[in-house]
Each structure stands twice: as structure tokens, then as C-alpha cells.
Design goal:
Layout lengths: L26 E2 L7 E5 L5 H12 L5 E4 L5 H12 L3 E4 L6 E5 L15 E4 L4 H11 L6 E4 L10 H10 L2 E4 L8 E4 L12 E4 L5 H11 L6 E5 L6 H13 L4 E2 L12 E3 L7 E4 L4 H14 L1 E8 L10 H7 L3 E6 L4 E7 L7 E3 L7 H13 L4 E4 L11 H11 L3 E5 L2 E5 L7 E2 L5 H13 L4 E2 L12 H9 L15 E3 L8
Helix pairs in contact: 1-2, 1-3, 1-6, 3-5, 5-6, 7-9, 7-11, 9-11
Length: about 500
């Protein structure tokens, strides 16, 4: 059996195109030495940062963003939006506070001598899906390309929808995938008084979000109907909420509408500028909260939003089903989520269709629960085959490398009881496969990972942050006054 899809992104995670780097020594995942007692300050949400940057780049006035994630994905988004005419100014040394001067419409592309702009997407789904929609409103065509693994991520449904709306779409490689040239065509989109389009969103909710983000910039807005089931609807809800927060009116389908019958209508109007604060990344909180269940003790994440559209808020429901306890304390404006555990885990049967990005962490806990004799079944996640790598194949392969029992199903994974042993695991250039390995390593001696640096995609400094959390085991960290907890700084200041 092969080690599954994807390629390791190597130490140079921020390079324009990445591949495995055999000269980099594997990272040895640390084993938990005892019960934890940590407070983890996390950087901003990747998903919210991407949406905030894009809307600020096309707003009616400048925007100041606070709490912005600075990672490989957001740097790629910043570079892409710069090519389309937006300007960005750091307002502090960390780069997490940023002033955005929006681009005019039509977007003025920074082109080369050939009259074409060029955008590097890396492996960032938000860049490769959100930015082509904007390129359809530009004054010149743009060529988009990315990492080797990005050329295997599906693009056809979005690009077909853009072509149906009048954009120029030319594939420069395999049809339906990067690289692709996108342009304004004859400019029909900027003249359309009524725009309607259908899109197959079954492979990614990002296709739906990309078109919703485009809709407000069209003279007559946009009516959008997905033709089939849409996974990760929480991300579509996030897009709608973000648009509304910027003053854009969006009509959502009724709760009883079925697949192919749900229509979103985005009313025209440039998003408002102003002040925007970005929530901490609740999906990235998952590995740290899970550590408390595996090692025992407690891990707390401050500034947990009282209400949010982030998929990571589901940790409040998922972790107690796997043997942990979760509490939310504080006020409605500043709450802290704490996960605690004893090291005893339970299996889970869960439909994770709306929270697919949480699956690698859930699968890691389920694998460790399997070593304690418990079975799990994760369903509704067939769309993970089109993420940074084929995550279902990658997870099944890595679990079996550890001695575990894992089987792919049509839409998920079955993880059965089996003892585990150390193994050399692969990241597949996928940040969430890297954190999967880190969680497993808490409870299994001898786990190594070929490419921990790909965590820089969404969480720079992960290894330093992880080590600081584990250093609180057995009271080894400096006590935090009044709590006895070790306070772990945000990843952007932790170093790696």
C-alpha cells in the first residue's frame, strides 16, 4: 500500500511551490508527561480573515482589520488582492492590525509585459476559489496557479458558473483544475442588471461562498442556486453573516428547501469599510483542547465568542461525546472555553458534514479511543477527498501505519478497536494531517512526522505553541496568578 495522496510541503512552507525536502529531519511528536494546565492564546480565524480581506479589498471605504491571522494562506490572499489593485498597510509589528485601501471597480490588475496578471494560490482553498470570481470583474485577465497538490483540487463547478455569467475562463492544463486564466470577457458582468447562476457545490462550499462574495459587486446582485447538496454549510452561513455585517443584504433559502431548490439572493452594494475585529480560530483550537482529553488535565482558550458561525464552535458538543468535559465561563463579551479530561476516551458516531475541517482532530481522538477498545464512525464527509489532500485516504492510511483499524466508506471513516504503536507519519502538505500526528503522539511513543512546517498554512509557530502547552504538565510551567495555569502565548509570537 502507498502512503496515500499529496506531497509533503517541506520546510519551505512559504515558498511559491513546495515539495518534499529530504534534508529536513522528521519532527518527533512529544508524548504527554502528565496532566496539562494551560491557557492557549490563538491567532485569528483563517476563514474569517480570508473573507474580511476580500471584502475590505472591494469595500466603499478603507477598512482597519484587527486580529488578522498572518499565515501562509493569508499572505497569499494579501498578494492576490494586491495584484487586483488593493493596498495594505501594517499598523503594528505583528501584522495582525492592518489598514486596507480598497481597489476601484473595475479592478485594476497589476499586469506583466504581456498584459496579464499572475496570482499564486499556494494550497489555499480560499485564494484559489474566492479570487477567480473577483478576477471576472477586472480590467485585464489573470492567470492563477498553485502548489502541485493545488492542481488536484476541483475547480470546475465554480469556473463553469463564472463562464455562464460571462467571464472568460481558459484552462491552461487539465480542464477543471489549475492553472487557469480568468478575465472579464466582454465585461458583461459589470453591466448585468440581473444575474442568475447554478453551481454544483457538492465538492466544496467554497464554490457557493465565492459566488456570494461576488454577488454584491454586480449591478443587479446575484441569485445563486446550488444544484445538489452543499457540505460545510456553516461556512456558507459565515459568508452570509460577513456580508451582512458589511451592510450587504442577503436573502437565504427557507429551512424546508431541498437540494437543488435552495436559492440565495445577494443584493447589490459595495461592502462597507470601517473597523473589523476577527475572532480567534476555533478550528485551530481543536488540537489543543483535544490534548486535555488525551493527557488529562485542562486546556483553556480565551476570547471564545458567545455567538459565532465558525465550525470550531462544535467542539463544545463533540468533545463531551468523546470522554471530555467542556465549560464556557466569563461574560458574553469575553468568554473562555475550557476542555478537561482524564485520559479515558470514548468512541463516537457523528455526521460531520457541516464541520468537515474538524475531522482530522476527531479522527485522532477516535484512533486513540480505538486503542482503548472503542469503535467510531464518522459520516457525511466525502467532500474531504477534495481538500488539501484526499483526507479520507490519508487518515485511513496513517491510522493503519500506527497499527490501528480504519476503513474508508462512501462518505466517511470507520475506526475500530486496535492497539497502536509508533510510526513515521506523513503530512501530505496538509496542516490538519500534521496536527493529527501531534495529537496521536501525545499518547503513543515513537511518532514522527515528515513535515510539521506545513502547519504554517494556518498556524505559524505551531511546534513552539504545542511544546509550551505540554510544558505545563505536572506543574512544570510558571503558575498563572489565581489559576495555577501556564499561559501560552499566541502562535504568532511563539516561534517554531
Amino acid at each position: 500500500m502507498t502512503d496515500g495522496p499529496g506531497t509533503a510541503c517541506g520546510a519551505a512552507a512559504s515558498a511559491a511551490s513546495v515539495g518534499s525536502d529530504d534534508s529536513v529531519a522528521p519532527w518527533r511528536a512529544p508524548v504527554a508527561a502528565g496532566a496539562l494546565d494551560a491557557v492557549v492564546e490563538l491567532p485569528g480565524s483563517k476563514s474569517l480573515s480570508a473573507r474580511a480581506l476580500l471584502l475590505a479589498a472591494v469595500a466603499d471605504a478603507p477598512t482597519t482589520l484587527t486580529g488578522l491571522l498572518r499565515s501562509r494562506d493569508t499572505e497569499l490572499m494579501l498578494a492576490a488582492l494586491t495584484v487586483l489593485g488593493a493596498r495594505f498597510e501594517d499598523l503594528d509589528a505583528s501584522g495582525t492590525r492592518l489598514r486596507v485601501t480598497p481597489a476601484p471597480l473595475p479592478l485594476r490588475v497589476r499586469t506583466g509585459p504581456d498584459g496579464v496578471g499572475r496570482i499564486e494560490t499556494g494550497l489555499a482553498g480560499t485564494v484559489m476559489r474566492f479570487v477567480p470570481a473577483l478576477a471576472a470583474l477586472a480590467d485585464a485577465p489573470v492567470v492563477l496557479d498553485g502548489d502541485e497538490a493545488a492542481r488536484r483540487r476541483p475547480m470546475a463547478p465554480l469556473l463553469d458558473a463564472l463562464a455562464a455569467l460571462g467571464a472568460e475562463v481558459t484552462y491552461l492544463g487539465e480542464p477543471g483544475f489549475l492553472p487557469v486564466r480568468v478575465g472579464p470577457g466582454d465585461g458583461a458582468l459589470l453591466r448585468a442588471q440581473s444575474a442568475r447562476v447554478a453551481v454544483d457545490g457538492s465538492a466544496s462550499s467554497q464554490f457557493v461562498s465565492a459566488l456570494l462574495l461576488l454577488g454584491a459587486l454586480l449591478p443587479g446582485g446575484l441569485e445563486l442556486t446550488p444544484t445538489g447538496p452543499v457540505p460545510s454549510l456553516t461556512h456558507v452561513a459565515m459568508t452570509v453573516a460577513t456580508l451582512r455585517e458589511r451592510g450587504v443584504a442577503v436573502d437565504e433559502p427557507g429551512p424546508g428547501a431541498g437540494d437543488g431548490e435552495r436559492t440565495w439572493r445577494v443584493h447589490p452594494g459595495r461592502p462597507r469599510g470601517g473597523q473589523v475585529t476577527i475572532e480567534p480560530d476555533l478550528s485551530n483550537a481543536g488540537p489543543f483542547l483535544a490534548a486535555a482529553l488525551v493527557a488529562g488535565g485542562r486546556v483553556s482558550v480565551p476570547h471564545w465568542p458567545a455567538a459565532t458561525t465558525q465550525a470550531g464552535d462544535a467542539w463544545r458538543e463533540l468533545l463531551p461525546r468523546m470522554g471530555g468535559a467542556v465549560t464556557l465561563t466569563g461574560s458574553t463579551t469575553d468568554s473562555t472555553l475550557t476542555a478537561s479530561g482524564t485520559g479515558r476516551l470514548t468512541g463516537i458516531e457523528a455526521d460531520l458534514s457541516d464541520v468537515g475541517e474538524l475531522v482530522p482532530t476527531v479522527a485522532a481522538l477516535a484512533t486513540l479511543a480505538g486503542a482503548q477498545g472503542h469503535a467510531s464512525a464518522l459520516t457525511g464527509i466525502a467532500h474531504l477527498r477534495g481538500h488539501e489532500t484526499d483526507r479520507l485516504a490519508a487518515l485511513a492510511t496513517q491510522i493503519r501505519r500506527l497499527g490501528g483499524h480504519a476503513e474508508e466508506t462512501a462518505d466517511g471513516l470507520v475506526i475500530g478497536p486496535a492497539p497502536l504503536h509508533g510510526a513515521a507519519l506523513h503530512a501530505y502538505a496538509d496542516h490538519r494531517m500534521a496536527t493529527f500526528a501531534a495529537i496521536i503522539g501525545l499518547g503513543v511513543e515513537g511518532v514522527t512526522l515528515d513535515d510539521v512546517e506545513c502547519t504554517s498554512k494556518t498556524l505559524p509557530g505551531f511546534t513552539g505553541l504545542w511544546a509550551a502547552v505540554l510544558a505545563t504538565a505536572g506543574g512544570e510551567s510558571s503558575p498563572r496568578t489565581g489559576t495555577g495555569s501556564g499561559t501560552v502565548p499566541g502562535a504568532q509570537g511563539a516561534g517554531a
